[in-house]
Amino acid sequence: MQVQLTSPLDMHLHFRSGDMLKTVAPLSSKSFAGGLIMPNTTPPITTKEVLLEYKQEILDATNGDNFTPYMTLFFKDDYSYDFLKSVKDEILAIKLYPAGITTNSEGGVSSLSIDNLRTTLEAMSELEIPLCIHGESNGFVMDREAEFIPIYKQLATAFPKLKIIMEHITTKASADAVLEFDNLYATITLHHLYITLDDVAGGMLQPHLFCKPIAKRPEDREALLNLALNANEKVMFGSDSAPHPRSAKEAPGCAAGVFTAPIALQLLTQLFAKHNKLENLQAFVSDNAQKIYGLKPIEKTITLEQKEFAIPAKYKDVVPFMANQKIEWRIV
Ligand code: NCD
Ligand code: ZN
Question: 2-331 belongs to which CATH class?
């Protein structure tokens, strides 16, 4: 049996820079037509000059593959209208991180009050630049995402023309909230459709499944599956593939992030097939994102076949999700 996907898109993707980028970028560009590239590099992407350099670095690393890096800026509360206007044609979105909430987010915003964010958000709204948000409070780890929902609602109400994407949602509360406002959308990762907190810490600790936001309860995963498998138009695929070298994962003080890019399409196909929802996969991995962001991705057809495939133990120095496990689908 075969499945064909047209121009799959990964709308939340970490490429890093330097050698890591050279390792991981081709693993996405081989099977995806484009991806939304996160700006939490070191240092983060906050100027046009650095943005263009970074884009070129990505194009060099994915040379020859039909792959569009959709670029993002790292949100700052003091971006001027003129600056945003000058950079608008080079970016697809701006990503907001609360300060210190995840990997390389120390320079994020420290006050999420509407007053503090107003200047930048008004400019974004007027220039029609979507806002992507890592929505977690600094409260108890299991409650962080739910505690952030009132902020999403305030922003959605205060800036009704601003498209707001709730990144990597992990809870039933977020799955409900995204449906409540016309201008709220969400990405869902592969790993949050597969795992719960039990897989991370219920037995022996699994550092390669540790990420932000942490995987939650079975009923939360159920709510995400319900949106993704039915390809609800408010959600799209964003892997949040977040590579870290093995030494940073298999260590005290394990870095947060799950590396899924090279096996994302295979495992999504396996999941949708298992639930008899293959007819909705195209919308979840491409069509919904095209509508939400107004994209016309390059034409690229990816064929998957139902044949056993063993996920490699590592890609260079990075251990992927479900390393060494046998799965049922592979890319032709
Ligand atoms: C991401 C990373 O490593 O950049 N980590 C993660 O656990 N998801 C950052 C992020 O998206 O939170
Ligand atoms: Zn991320």
Answer: alpha beta
